[in-house]
Amino acid sequence: MEQDYSVVAGRRRLVGGVTITETPYGGRVYRSKHEAATAAALVEAGLSDVRYEAERLPYAVGVYVPDFTLGDGLTIVEAKGWLSDDAQRKLIMVRDAHPERHIVLCLQNPHNRLKKGRKLTGAQWAKREGFDWATVDALADHLRAIGVEDDWNPDYHPYVAARNMDLAAAAERMRAAAEGGNEPNCA
Known about the structure:
By secondary structure, the protein is an alpha+beta fold.
């Protein structure tokens, strides 16, 4: 029986054994509807310098291509519809290989279980592994809460400050953000 690949969002095609839906948004074609929605959320956040799959980062077993790199060059937004075991391992290795980078996961279904029969969700895994995360709907507010703006200044970014061993200053900035109603990991 032949499958119907007609989709409103775009053309479906097989890439590396996985069927993807090419989705146009803002004059560019993304690999999935979730990536296109993430791009729209970044535009909503007012970020003008967002690069899609524009760089290659080497890590222990290969090369990682971030979905979105923000203007500062340090913040990466990775759109994830599903956190497979391979994706989890890759994200941890990339984080460890590039501690100067701040990876924000944009999770499509953060409360779905990662595996059948287990209770661990994508959001719980991200929190446990120290990744910042948000949903598409909360991404713009979340990036503002953690200090990512168009006129980005790494001195005010709590996560980069922590990675630069300025833990006390980073903790103070995170407390100030939380007092203002902006949680570091919001959904």
